[in-house]
Specification:
The complex is a heterodimer of chains A (about 120) and B (about 120).
Chain A (H helix, E strand, L loop, with lengths): L3 E4 L2 E4 L4 E8 L5 E7 L6 E7 L2 E5 L6 E7 L2 E7 L7 E8 L14 E2 L3 E5 L1
Parallel strand pairs in A: 2-11
Antiparallel strand pairs in A: 1-3, 3-8, 4-5, 4-9, 5-6, 7-8, 9-10, 9-11
Chain B lengths: L2 E4 L3 E5 L4 E8 L5 E7 L6 E7 L4 E4 L2 E6 L4 E6 L8 E8 L10 E3 L3 E6 L1
Parallel strand pairs in B: 2-11
Antiparallel strand pairs in B: 1-3, 3-8, 4-5, 4-9, 6-7, 7-8, 9-10, 9-11
Classes of the chains: A mainly beta (about 120), B mainly beta (about 120).
Chain lengths: ~120, ~120
Amino acid sequence: DTEVTQTPKHLVMGMTNKKSLKCEQHMGHRAMYWYKQKAKKPPELMFVYSYEKLSINESVPSRFSPECPNSSLLNLHLHALQPEDSALYLCASSQEQARLAGGPGYEQYFGPGTRLTVT
Amino acid sequence: SQKIEQNSEALNIQEGKTATLTCNYTNYSPAYLQWYRQDPGRGPVFLLLIRENEKEKRKERLKVTFDTTLKQSLFHITASQPADSATYLCALDTFRRGGGADGLTFGKGTHLIIQP
């Protein structure tokens, strides 16, 4: 099973709402990622979890709060978002940390994304 | 600052010809470089990974080269087909000094159109 699943597929929320995005993988991967992708732009890294610990936070505003409850699950909690936060949110996973393990580099498997609209 | 450039936003190629996409980078020394395909409304799909000590990698009709002196990677699709039409993204690891997991920094992508 080389699939990364994300729910929901689409989400519309108001600026005062609280919602969560979910991501799941069963490939035994120990690194998981959140990316944000605006229309006609490349994905931009937001957070990296490595062995269930937050490894990288790319200066993302605190209205985005990641959580990794276990090695298979990754959540992104959303609160008080702005309309400019509307985007496709992509989750990805990879076998392990390329640099820390001194490994050869590992490909990332992406989910289909959650299309978020903030009104 | 680090910069990744892909040669063109769009590339039109006749079916059967070889499509060549370019990725250049500056102010960076990646340990590896990856190429992904992305179709509209979908997540990127991994195609090939090449390490800094490798010159060339092949997979079926795909070939990627990596020149760390020129700071450039070329991505080739031979015998191109209309089904190859998609956006192709070049990605580099974002190495953190002192270790830690890597995320990817993507180029803007090249929208490849294969015309029948």
